[in-house]
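Input:
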Amino acid sequence: MGGGLSGLGPLHGSRLLTGGADGDLAAIKTALTEQARALGFSAVGIADPAAIAGEAPRLQAFLDAGAHGDMDWLANDPARRASPLVLWSEVRSVIMLGLNYGPDENPLALLAHATRGNISVYARGDDYHDLIKKRLKTLARWLMAQAGGDVKVFVDTAAVMEKPLADAAGLGWQGRHTNLVSRDYGSWLFLGAIFTTLELPRDTATGDHCGSCRACLDSCPTDAFPAPYRLDARKCISYLTIEHKGPIPREFRAAIGNRIYGCDDCLSACPWNKFAQQGHEARLAARDELRAPPLAYLAQLDDAAFRALFTRSPVKRVGRARFLRNVLTAIGNSGEPALADDARRLLDDDSPLVRGAAVWALSRLLPRAEFARLADASDDKDDGVREEWAMARPSS
Ligand code: B12
Ligand code: SF4
Ligand code: SF4
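Output:
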């Protein structure tokens, strides 16, 4: 979501500007960095808006391959997305900010606990968008008050390519898993951007430090990297469990395991995480109830309970039906027959998405004959659910 602060207008007669000399701009940059750190940002750097000119063909290749799946918003106006100057012709500098959210435990440990749901690290606390956006606005206002100019702030949801911009601003480099890797924080930086009309001194890119490593590529449970530095989002568990609206394609369901919202496998595999530091933001820290929630509990959430459990959490965004689809996929993968009762109850859910996922879960947990009896008794009117029954019915 992009939020221009242009309404505040440029402020003149500011404290740090004494005549527009290079020294003034350097002083502004130093003070800006200090201010960003005081606001809790872990990394800050400045890029030339033209620095990512080379990304346009790469973005186009990604879109031409259909790798964005049904994230249509990624395909809207790629020229704008690939260039800050097309998005806002007056921008002269892009200030990139990183906020450390390093986990306090091994994010992969929970994958072994099949009756518990694994929510990815970024979504175990409050929604980072809200927190970062507020701070970006505070920092942007401060900059305007000190040095004038006009600003716009972005975090995640606007048509801005944050990773290559952060790369150009020296925050780290885009690793083979396509995310930004930092020497100081490993894989665990959230990104945000302030576009300004001020011409601030640039930082230099760190360059790629992946070397011959390919740990992230090899760790992916769904083989979602067609090549290093390239992701096919349609195969990525993060996309499948968060962005994808319909039934999860059958070929990925088993590999999803107990990942019920996002995935951290490629991030966790990175050796640069040995320099990672635990995040200090209390609001982003894992809530106890979201660290390892029992699937049996999650399967019983009605709409009100879902909203209450995920207040201020990013998980709320997907809504109950998509979330329960994910929970049922994990139940199907749990190997725990005791969870079949939870899945059976959801055969009567109002949402066909949930009913279809319940069918799949039961097909994995019930003895063949018992599943066949249920299939015979089903008179679901929804085509998608009927297809699930047909696909899962044991051939005799
Ligand atoms: C769409 C999106 C997704 C999609 C697609 C991911 C993707 N890789 O594009 C899905 C839903 C899958 C997703 C998942 C995740 N996301 Co996401 N996502 C975004 C979003 C909104 C846009 C990204 C984008 O522009 N994609 C378009 C494609 C074309 O970009 P790309 O894959 O990076 O492709 C580039 C490379 O392939 C490169 N390239 C191609 N060939 C070559 C060759 C070489 C040699 C090199 C160097 C590069 C290169 O060129 C391409 C264009 O730059 C950004 C926020 C933003 N506005 O930037 C967050 C963002 C990237 N996501 C983020 C996070 C945290 C995640 C997850 C970790 C969440 C989770 N735990 O489940 C996963 C990680 C999955 C992964 N391995 O990427 C963070 C990443 C922070 C960081 N440190 O990098 C961001 C920046 C949000 C934020 N504000 O913090 N995400
Ligand atoms: S987030 Fe998970 S599924 Fe997606 S690319 Fe990384 S390891 Fe693969
Ligand atoms: S795991 Fe290896 S290849 Fe992947 S981003 Fe980290 S250093 Fe690069």
